[in-house]
Design goal:
The chain has about 375 residues and is α+β, with helices and mostly antiparallel strands. The chain folds into two domains: about 160 residues, 2-Layer Sandwich (60s Ribosomal Protein L30, Chain: A), CATH 3.30.1330; about 200 residues, PurM-like C-terminal domain (Phosphoribosyl-aminoimidazole Synthetase, Chain A, domain 2, Alpha-Beta Complex). The protein is built from eleven helices and 17 strands. The strands form five sheets. It has a seven-stranded mixed beta sheet. It has a four-stranded mixed beta sheet with strand order 3-6-4-5, with helices on one face. Helix 1 runs parallel beside helix 4 and helix 5 packs across helix 9. Belongs to the AIR synthase family. Keywords: ATP-binding, Cytoplasm, Ligase, Nucleotide-binding, Purine biosynthesis. This is Phosphoribosylformylglycinamidine cyclo-ligase.
Length: about 375
């Protein structure tokens, strides 16, 4: 009879332990006095007495992954940047309501635990958590032989933040006459990679090809980490100049912006106010992708949008400039009118997504490319 062991079945618990040893210093660097118990417990502990200083604390939570961008990291065997993408997708969904992130947990599923690879992933998560002021209080690495190939993995995470109830940002604060402030993305971020990877396949490109528009290889451009907006958004919120934020993730600019508008309002977005970064135009040309499909999938250079009162526009732009964030006036908010009715001659309205019903967005003008 063949003797079967857990290791023979494909699970190496010693490798998992080694991965924890390699990553624990990076994880500890995210811990402040609110974190109890250190690394390796069954549950992460965070001291909630900090919340007693709030009059009415509202907890905000979000969970997400990075989609098929992990396939690029795996193909290039570069794993220390994908963690920033994970934190950006999770924590910056919390900050849009004005919430300060408190703590985060991560989950990595892989076909085989390679300690150095897992440690690289978690170090990236920890570095981004440290940048955003988020404690990484726990996580799990699960080995799934037979379900995932040895070099395959996926990552996900969840985070919790807090906001004072009377400081909550969102549609209730948005008014006709408000102005849209765009904050530049760092590139593709972590959305639309199924489209991008299909274009790569159709065009017959190599990830190792040097691309003049980027000044680096295609693979290096595709792995540029998601920009982290947490501290910048909180600075704007603390300055009292923001009514709402929209994090531009899956679905593109218009659909995500529509999610934070109340019914009866329309945001007019001027496509001519920025130059679309080269990566997006390269993808478009490589797959002959229609602009309409591109803008409904990718961020096209706008990673976060702040909605501010017109009298606060200059201050919002100043706060962004002082923090080194490229920002510009993107458009404005108005009441919906007869010209927005179905069948009107103007470009169609884009309504919300993710089950949200509310306002709408109309995109004007033509995109400018470098």
């Amino acid at each position: 009879m063949t003797r079967v062991t857990y290791a023979e079945a494909g699970v190496d618990t010693e490798a998992g332990d080694k991965a924890v040893e390699l990553m624990k210093d990076a994880v500890r660097a995210t811990h402040g006095p609110q974190v109890l118990g250190g690394v390796g417990g069954f549950a992460g502990l965070w001291d909630a007495t900090e919340l007693t200083r709030y009059r009415r604390p509202l907890l905000a939570t979000s969970t997400d992954g990075v989609g098929t961008k992990v396939a690029i990291a795996q193909a290039l065997d570069v794993h220390d940047t994908i963690g920033a993408d994970l934190v950006g997708m999770v924590v910056d969904d919390i900050v849009v309501v004005g919430a300060k992130p408190l703590y985060m947990t991560d989950y990595i599923a892989c076909g085989k635990v390679v300690p150095e690879r897992i440690a690289d992933i978690v170090r990236g998560i920890a570095a981004a958590c440290e940048e955003t002021g988020t404690a990484l209080v726990g996580g799990e690495t699960a080995e799934h032989p037979g379900l995932l190939e040895p070099d395959e993995y996926d990552v996900a995470g969840a985070a919790t933040g807090v906001v004072e109830a009377d400081s909550l940002l969102g549609p209730d604060r948005v008014r006709a006459g408000d102005v849209l402030v765009a904050m530049a993305s760092s590139g593709l971020h972590a959305n639309g990679y199924s489209l991008v990877r299909r274009v790569i396949d159709v065009a017959g490109w190599s990830l190792h090809t040097h691309v003049g528009e980027f000044g680096r290889t295609l693979g290096e451009e595709l792995l540029v980490p998601t920009r982290l907006y947490t501290a910048h958004c909180l600075a704007l919120a603390d300055a009292g100049v923001v009514h709402a934020f929209s994090h531009v993730t899956g679905g593109g600019l218009a659909a995500n912006l529509a999610r934070i508008l109340p019914g009866g309002l329309v945001a007019d977005v001027d496509r001519t106010t920025w130059v679309v970064p080269p990566i997006f135009d390269v993808v478009r040309r490589g797959g002959d992708v229609p602009w309409s499909d591109l803008e409904a999938t990718l961020n096209l250079g706008v990673g976060m949008v702040a909605v501010v009162a017109p009298e606060d526009l200059d201050e919002a732009l100043r706060v962004c400039a002082d923090r080194g964030v490229q920002a510009w006036e993107l458009g404005s908010v108005r009441a919906e009118d007869d010209g927005d009715a179905p069948g009107a001659a103007a470009s169609p309205l884009v309504r919300g997504t993710k089950g949200v019903t509310g306002g709408a967005v109309r995109l004007h003008g033509s995109y400018r490319t470098a």
